[in-house]
Amino acid sequence: MLALACESRPHVALEPSSEPVPHATADPPPSRTPAPRDTVVWIGGDVLDGEALRDFARTFDEPADGFAAAFEPAASLWRDDDAFVIVNLEVPVADERRFALDASLDATPHPGGRHRRVHLQGAPWMCEGLARAGIDAVVLANNHAMDQGPDGLVETIGCARRAGLAVIGAGVHPARDWPLSLGDPGREVAVHALYVGLDRGAIEVGDPERAFLDEDALTNVERSASTHDAVIAIVHVVAELEPEPDPSWASWATRLVDAGVDAIVVHGTHLPMRVERFGAHGVPIAWGLGNAMSDMGRLSGPRRQSPRKEEDAATREGLFARLRVRGPHDVELAVLPVFVLDDRFLRWHGALPRLHARDGSHADEIRFSLWALDGCDEPARVPTEWREPWRGELVRWLRDRRDDVVRRSGLPAARCGESGWLNLP
Questions:
Q1: DSSP 8-state assignment for residue 271
Q2: What does the alpha-carbon distance between residue 39 and residue 351 come to, in Å, rounded to a whole number?
Q3: Which domains are seen in the chain, by residue range?
Q4: H or E element: which one contains 422?
Q5: What beta strand segments (E) does 237-367 contain?
Q6: Which of 323, 60, 314 is CA-nearest to residue 187?
Q7: Could you report the per-residue pLDDT of 235-278, keeping only the tens digit for each?
Q8: In this structure, what DSSP letter does residue 258 have?
């Protein structure tokens, strides 16, 4: 039976000074206890793979290195920030496929008696790739975690833990909502991951399951609020490609705030949404982070855009939330616009220099990278060896994408020369 323990990565306090204090001073000796450091948590959006992403990863000797490389150069930013980094793993990484990708080809009812439209299954090296990219934890409280059944969820948890990733929002019923606990005393934060969904089905004690946003979860949040300096809630909704938060979300957000939550971020929209302060207490909330890594919108480009998922460039846009716990119930939220860029447009126009795989053969696989977008006219410093005029056209498109993310967030734009972070007033 799978056991889920409370995961933690506390910051290490500095050792007190061993220097003697002079007796001649009239002032009291300085405190030997250092002030606690702020706890910094980065939360990215949804992570999915796809055929082109898998092909890119396999151009490396170890596909896990290739998947990690897809998060560059943005990954260098969270590594430099001494932050704990969390993403939503939107696909199960089961040992085997138990249900067909296309539900219409699968005559076996899905657990819970409901047929899914698709049954996702991630590549076996995804967990290790996330860890090598500097990710510290994955959320599994989402609508795809059970795509390969209960055994697939158990195997996904095992995959994550073997890679050294903490797991939030999944475990064995009823102990499936144990929070992640981080930080020094005075800056301790509990992170809860909860799913707002209808596909729960019948659950017995001992069954592997996700953490739903229910009465038990609210009780657990209240308990965390009584034992921690701050509580962060990560909520997964089923609202694919919805441009605005559903008005009904205010109900569960209010209940979370009443239970003691100090900040909320939302997964599952696959599009970035507005960031604001919620309720009478002005709790910071990011209503949708969009995608952190996927190949959605794979047919979009500088000359092709439509509301269809395959042609919607907004599905390649995302926000990374940075939550800084500065004291009891004091959580600062900022978001960083990011974009999943591939080289299809340049490749199709012959604008790339000749690429070679490590074995010397020509590399035909599409290449991926994750870019933070700043406030400059060239929001991402893409390679200068990309040929003009197509490089310039791609840069202008990235500028449009940056402006679209900022518009969706509702926050003031960053200026050129700044880091690109959008700060919630």
A1: S
A2: 44
A3: 39-342 (3.60.21.10)
A4: strand 422-423
A5: 263-267, 275-278, 283-286, 291-293, 317-327, 330-342
A6: 323
A7: 999 998 888 999 999 999 999 999 999 999 999 999 999 999 99
A8: H
